[in-house]
Amino acid sequence: MASTNYEYANKFCRRCNKYLGNYMTGDYYKLIRLKYCDDCRPVVQNEQKRFSKKNLHKARKPLCAALLERAIITEEENKLLRQKNKILAAEVERLYG
Q1: Cα(76)–Cα(82) distance, rounded to whole angstroms?
Q2: DSSP of 49-65, one letter per residue?
Q3: Taking the model in full, what pTM does it have?
Q4: C-alpha span between 12 and 19 (Å, rounded)
Q5: Which tens digit of pLDDT belongs to each residue from 38-78?
Q6: Does 77 reside within a domain?
Q7: Phi, psi torsion values for 31, nearest 5 degrees
Q8: Does 27 map to a domain?
């Protein structure tokens, strides 16, 4: 006769080791996705969110620096082109004016 001892199917919180349930005797689809109890879930989500934001900021930092440098160079080029346009406009005015 088969044993109904489903201890291998017990689910525990990964953070505090609190008993969540047994997915062989309870709601299977709910319990197989659970990793944390109701008390630990918001704490873990907050930690994961902070970690993700930190990594995103770290990844964007060099990109932002490169974009800022490019914007400064473009602004200098625009300034020089405006000066050149003024000189050319004055020359056209002198020649055809």
Answers
A1: 10
A2: HHHHHHHHHHHHHHHHH
A3: 0.55
A4: 5
A5: 999 999 999 999 999 999 999 899 888 889 999 999 999 99
A6: no
A7: -75, -30
A8: yes
